[in-house]
Design brief:
Blueprint (H helix, E strand, L loop, with lengths): L16 H27 L2 H8 L7 E4 L5 H30 L5 H38 L8 E4 H18 L2 H10 L5 H5 L2 H15 L5 H24 L3
Parallel strand pairs: 1-2
Helix pairs in contact: 1-3, 2-3, 3-4, 3-5, 4-5, 6-9, 8-9
Length: 243
């Protein structure tokens, strides 16, 4: 672990452009290595991972592949997304260590303290997608399957849809940290954002409507409510930190 993460870093001394590029290369290398290793391990468990998401299609749909390499790349895509979730702590750590030398002591403490929360929120976003967004969305789309209209879903398209929503929700749940970061920069404040609650409600329902294109208002509300609660959680964090 890097010594003196908060009060002092090894690169507090002036660094040349070459030093910065060398440091960036090193951080990218270790981040990619962690992702590759995690993805490689996950690849051997892709049948198990696929069995976890296959029920989302329901019994009316048939999962197929139409090209020799399609199933392989679909498995690879699934393994890479699962590996990204597993390697997220290592990746975020290297990102933090790269930017720490350019921050003040107070900013370093804030960044280090937010890293665990960022990882937790990313995972929670993925869990939310798996248990709420994906079942609702796939249930709506699969409802069009009838005895006269068979659902034959290509595995590549299915994996792309599932992994895309998992990543989107994982990133969406970073909203509190993004707003808190902007508040620390003085670009937004809890008082200013609290006057935009109507806009926040509208945006939450807009995102929910795009993520779950169903005519059911209750489903849209179930998805929009956590998004809006993230906004309120952001305001609480800003007040706690005096922003």
């Amino acid at each position: 672990m890097e010594e003196s993460l908060v009060d002092e870093t090894p690169h507090d001394r002036p660094m040349s452009l070459v030093d910065h590029l060398s440091e960036l290369r090193s951080r990218i290398f270790w981040s990619l290595l962690a992702w590759v290793v995690a993805s490689t391990v996950c690849y051997f468990y892709t049948p198990t991972l696929l069995s976890l998401v296959r029920p989302l299609l329901g019994p009316k749909a048939e999962l197929i592949f139409t090209g020799p390499t399609e199933a392989f790349f679909a498995y690879l895509k699934l393994a890479m997304v699962a590996g990204l979730f597993i390697a997220a702590p290592v990746i975020l750590y290297n990102v933090a260590m790269f930017v720490l030398p350019g921050l003040t002591v107070r900013e370093r403490r804030w960044l280090i303290s937010m890293l665990p929360m960022s990882i937790v929120l990313f995972v929670v976003g993925g869990v939310f997608a798996y248990y709420v967004v994906l079942p609702t969305t796939m249930g709506f789309f699969m409802s069009y399957a009838t005895p006269d209209l068979k659902a034959q879903i290509r595995i590549d398209e299915f994996m792309g849809f599932v992994t895309g929503l998992l990543l989107i929700c994982g990133l969406m749940f970073q909203l509190p940290l993004v707003l808190l970061f902007l508040a620390n920069l003085g670009l937004v404040s809890s008082r200013g954002l609290s006057r935009q609650r109507r806009l926040a409600v509208f945006v939450a329902f807009l995102v929910a409507a795009l993520a779950t294109p169903t005519p059911d208002a209750m489903t849209c509300t179930v998805v929009a409510l956590p998004i809006y609660l993230l906004f309120e959680f952001s305001l609480i964090l800003m007040r706690i930190t005096g922003k």
